[in-house]
Amino acid sequence: MRIGGEGNLDDNAPMPLISRTLPAEADTLALGAELAPHLQPGLVIYLSGELGAGKTTLARGILRGLGYDGRVKSPSFALVEPYKLSRLYLYHFDFYRFTNPRELGEAGFREHFNPESVCLVEWPENAAGVVPAADVRIELKIAGAGRQVGLDADTEAGRRCLKHLKH
Prior knowledge:
Blueprint (H helix, E strand, L loop, with lengths): L17 E5 L2 H11 L8 E5 L6 H11 L14 E5 L4 E6 L7 H6 L9 E6 L13 E8 L2 E8 L2 H7 L5
Parallel strand pairs: 2-5, 2-6, 4-5
Antiparallel strand pairs: 1-7, 3-4, 6-7
Helix pairs in contact: 1-2
C-alpha cells in the first residue's frame, strides 16, 4: 500500500525509494539528523505535506544534525531563512504564502539555488516551474498521532544522498 495524493492510500501511487513510519516528533527530528551528514552542496530537497505534517520539524532535525543549535522557525512570512554552517550554506524556503511564481525571480531567490548551497523547499508546488527540479523529494503525511514519510531521489546526487539512510 502506498500513499497517494491528499494523504490517501493509493495502490497506484509510485513506491518511494524509502518509506518509514515516524511515531513521534522525536523520530522526525532523528530522520533529519540522519540525513544531514549526507547533504552535499548543490542539492535541492523538496519537503511536501499538508499543514502540520512536520516539514519544518524535519528541517529542524537536518539543521541540528549539521550542528546548528539556534532557533529554527518556519520561513512562512520571510519566505527564506539562510543558515551558514561550517561546511555549507543552507537555505530553508517556505512557499506556502507564495501566489505568483514570477515573484521568485523578482525577489532574488534564484541566486540561492547554486552549486554551493543546499536548498530545502517547503510547498514547492507553489513555485513550480520557477525553482529547480528536486534532487530529493520528501513527502510527509499525518498518520494518526505520528507521520508517514516517503523519500525519493530524482537525480544521481539525490540517490547518493539517500543511499546512506537505513531502510
